[in-house]
Design a protein that fits this description.
Length: 128
């Protein structure tokens, strides 16, 4: 098996599904997430968590012959968007998947659609 120090779970959501949620469903999301967030935090394996804004606020940068070309929106054209990523400590991919599975994205597809992938990190450097 692959030996890791860190892995990067990436959580995807379906913006169309989220846009169709009722006000009551939107209001219920924080409480629905809470036990999963608490379990992930209690694991002691989460090192970093990042939640993104809506894709309409993003910018993409592509190389060009003169200077980088900046465009509006996501770099990738997909139905699902990245909403959250986090870093977990893990000895192997199985432990990384087990830890990542504690996150709400692994349980609350009826709100978000999408899903999650777990990518082993070849290099993870922290800068202060």
């Amino acid at each position: 098996t692959l030996s890791l120090h860190d892995a990067l779970p990436i959580c995807y959501y379906d913006p169309q599904k989220v846009a169709q949620l009722s006000p009551q469903e939107l209001e219920a999301i924080p409480n629905a997430c809470k036990p999963y967030d608490e379990a992930l935090n209690a694991s002691g394996k989460k090192r970093l968590l990042v939640c993104f804004t809506d894709p309409e606020t993003w910018k993409s940068i592509r190389p060009s012959t003169e200077k980088p070309l900046v465009t509006e929106g996501s770099f990738q054209s997909t139905q699902e968007q990245v909403g959250v990523f986090f870093v977990v400590e893990a000895e192997n991919i199985e432990e990384a998947v087990e830890t990542a599975s504690l996150h709400p994205s692994a349980h609350l597809g009826h709100y978000f659609g999408g899903g999650m992938e777990v990518r082993p990190c070849e290099l993870f450097e922290e800068y202060v």
